[in-house]
Amino acid sequence: MGLQPKGGARAMARKAEKNQTEKADVSAETDVGVLSSFIGYAMKRAYMTIHGDFLASFEHLGLRSGTFSALSIIVDNPDISQSQLARALAIERSGVVLIVDHLEGRELIGRHRVPGDRRAYALRATLAGCCLRDEAVEAIRKHEARVLSSLERRGTGDLARPARAGDVRAISWSFRQEYYLLKLLIGRT
Length: 189
Prior knowledge:
The protein is mainly alpha-helical. Helices cover 68% and strands 9% of the residues.
C-alpha cells in the first residue's frame, strides 16, 4: 500500500550511496579542527551517518521513523489509547493525532470506540499495517547488520551488547573503546 518511489529500492540505494560519497568528499576537504577531539561531536556525526542509512532502509515503504515507531507500538499493543501512544513515543498528544491520522488514512490502523468512554479511542493495526511493520522491521534489521558488520570489520565487537543488558558502566567503557572507531566510521562516510 505504501508509495513506491520512482526507480524503486535499488535506485534509492544508489542515490543514498552517492549522497554519502559526496558528503565524505566534502568532509574530507574541510578540517574540523578541535571539533574532532570532542566525543559529542563524534557521536553526532556517527548518529547522522547511521540514521541516514536507517531512514533510507525503509523509505521505499512510505514510512518515516516516527510513523514506523507509532505503527510498531500499535502492532505490539492492540487497543492502546492515543494518550498511551503519546507517552510511549515521548511526544505531545497533539503530535500523536497527526501520526494516527496519517496511519489511519493509509488504512494501516483503525480507531475503535472504548466501551464506557465515549471520548477515548483504542488503536489497532490492520492486517496491512502488521505486514508493513514486519517488512520495515526486516529492512531495519538488514540496515543494522550492514552498519554493525562495517564496525565489526574494524574490530569493535558487539556494540549493542552492553545497551541490551542495560549496564551503564559497560556502555561507558564500550563507548570509550569505540570512540576512535566511530571517528573512523565518520571519516569513511
